[in-house]
From TrEMBL:
Protein origin, superkingdom: Bacteria
Pfam families assigned: CHAP (PF05257)
Record protein name field: CHAP domain
Domain Peptidase C51: 210-299
InterPro entries (UniProt xref): CHAP_dom, Papain-like_cys_pep_sf
Amino acid sequence: MIIGSVFGIFFSGEDSGTGMSMQTVVQEINIEYDTKLQDEKTSVSYDVLEMSGSRAVWKEVLAVYSVKVNTDPDNPQEVATMDESKKQLLTDIFWEMNEIRSSTDTKTETVITETDDGHGNIVETESTVTQTYLYITVSHKTADEMAAQYGFNEEQKEYLAELLADENNSLWSQVLYGITGTDDQIVTVALSQIGTMGGDPYWSWYGFNSRVEWCACFVSWCANECGYIDAGVIPKYAGCVNGVQWFKDRGQWLDNSAEPTPGMIIFFDWASGGQDGLSDHTGIVQKVENGRVYTVEGNSGDSVRQSSYPVGYYEILGYGAPAY
């Protein structure tokens, strides 16, 4: 039966009576990952933080888990349900596939300060500043690398390839995120990027040669992955203000009193910036539940992260409503 095979993983999205499902366990592991990242940040004092790298994609982690656990020659187990022992197996595989490393470096740099001498003349003053840099790097192994590490045989490798075939993407979306509709394609893409740090894949794709504030580049990259930019459904934008204007020009703008739907583009006007009516940050709406808007945002702490806000939250400027 399918449910007892490696493909039973596609039935693991629901609670089977153990009080946990694949979704809840994945969420717990994501929290553990975020906690470890924060621990790295708070473990030392630093002046400048630079983060880079990306995590393994969750569907690859689950595919490796499914094949390894279901075809274990000594203790094969079905993977359609979740319990504490399987949760530990999945957690172990996740951390075998992902690694967080950090290092520090001290740099002495020359800084030029311009001041007025009181007589209308600009005076340049050079000074040296010593700063401590904290570098955090996330690296991951692919499903194929894990297959080699675990010594998968040819049949196991075939199972792995079948699980990861593009035709199963919608099944993975349902297992991981509870998404069943095709209009949530951009949400699925965005969720697959959680944990990516530094934004290099997004701002370099956009055309920048070095790091920029990359929240809008992330949204644009996700839209491009879905074909929405070429279709004229979502704009390619690097500036949040430009994204807002694009939706307003097409009559596809909703103010912050609206209750958005998955796949809408959310724009923020941070209070820390003085709330001038211009957008400072952007992301993708994942869902709305119990009066809260759940989002996926790039450049949130220099990484792709999930967040949530009350519907109507004062720092939400509004939403772009793509015509999917």
